[in-house]
Amino acid sequence: MPRPTDLSDADERVLRHLHDAGADYPALVAANTGLHIPLVERRIATLEDRGYVEAATGERIYRITEPGRRALAGDPPVARPTADGDGPEETVADGGTPSPEAE
């Protein structure tokens, strides 16, 4: 399977575990991936912001989403609408270019 280009090694390990487990607590993701809990918590927060994982319950149990499965498979990200609704918006992490305001 090709390595997704927009995912870090830690992101890929978290997504692979959630794909295989279905859903899990961050501490158990850490235990099963060999990553430190604070790193897993940060990566889950980022992956959740990107729509790749979501809370499965009211507790801190997370599962992979369909966009997360696509990212894990190496498929290009689906463009999200911009805040003003004028077209797709890609983040730098998704392979987009930084906006002029960010420079």
TrEMBL record:
It comes from the Archaea. Residues 67-103 are annotated as: Disordered. InterPro entries: WH-like_DNA-bd_sf, WH_DNA-bd_sf. This is DUF2250 domain-containing protein. It comes from Halobaculum lipolyticum.
